[in-house]
Write a structure and sequence with these properties.
The chain is of the alpha+beta class. It has one domain: Fumarylacetoacetase-like, C-terminal domain (Fumarylacetoacetate hydrolase, domain 2, Alpha-Beta Complex). It is built from five helices and 13 strands. Helix 1 crosses helix 2. The two termini are 33 Å apart. The model has no long low-confidence stretch (mean pLDDT 96). It binds 2-oxoadipic acid and magnesium ion.
Length: 250
């Protein structure tokens, strides 16, 4: 398949909630893969979605180990992917969603490569990312996951606060009040600010108002229907949402 066909196939899989086989018919290399990702986002923007953010993936060893992939990847966030803090996530059209705890940065100024990336940051917040690979069994090559907008599906951001120390904050995720994963923001490239610097380098420039997700601090957790999810980042606060139950699905 060529770039346009691959983007269309990934888009259709996401809309239908049906996985594609990771059968090697995907993009050949990472350049190819980012071209597919761009074509996929262009389709969605043409349908009325609006870009809201930039995300990094595989910034922690926990995630690299879980997925068997070693390189930093990046994707885009849109307004349609926003989950209100304390709100409901409709999981009826998701394939095999997982959730992971993250740190979010809100840019107050243009973020450019070089210099102190925190100078561009207006606020920070605890965040939850929902990922849902459009590839069967969450198994993919590096080019495939890049083309698939790095498995991005949704994100919730907790209360924004003025940036303070971020280097080694305790992180936890609970499902229905049961502890599912614990970690530290130090798992994110040693310090989440390094993820921000990487975002600047990879994006070239990011506009004020952009949300940057630094990447998961722990492995991702399977996200069933009818579940209350809560993440806490020590010193930053809490973010939560609830997934719909099968009875609520049409
Ligand atoms: C890719 C997404 C990785 C992260 O935070 O590391 C990611 C995947 O795990 O399918 O979002
Ligand atoms: Mg993530």
């Amino acid at each position: 398949m060529n770039t346009v066909e691959l983007a269309a196939a990934l888009d259709a899989a996401a809309l239908a909630g049906r996985a594609l086989p990771g059968d090697g018919s995907g993009p050949r290399d990472t350049d190819d893969a980012y071209a597919v990702q761009a074509a996929l986002l262009a389709r969605r923007l043409a349908r009325g979605e609006r870009l809201t953010g930039f995300k990094l993936g595989f910034t922690s060893l926990a995630k690299m180990r879980q997925m068997g992939v070693r390189d930093l990847i990046h994707g885009r966030l849109t307004d349609r992917m926003e989950i209100p803090d304390g709100g409901i996530l409709d999981v009826s059209r998701l394939i095999h969603p997982r959730v992971e705890p993250e740190v979010a940065f809100l840019l107050g100024d243009t973020l450019l490569p070089g210099g102190d990336p925190m100078a561009a940051v207006a606020a920070v917040a605890p965040a939850l990312e929902v990922i849902d690979s459009r590839y069967d069994g969450f198994r993919f090559s590096l080019p495939e996951v890049i083309a698939d907008n790095t498995s991005a599906s949704g994100y919730a951001v907790g209360p924004w606060s003025a940036p303070g120390e971020l280097g080694n904050l305790g992180v936890l995720v609970e499902l229905d009040g049961r502890l599912a994963e614990t970690g530290s923001t130090a798992a994110i490239l040693g310090h989440p600010v390094r993820a921000l610097a990487a975002a600047a380098r990879l994006a070239g420039s990011l506009a004020p108002g952009t949300v940057v997700l630094a990447g998961a601090a722990t492995a991702a957790v399977p996200l069933p229907p009818g579940t209350h999810v809560r993440a806490e980042v020590a010193g930053l606060g809490t973010v939560r949402f609830t997934t719909t139950t099968p009875e609520e699905h049409p």
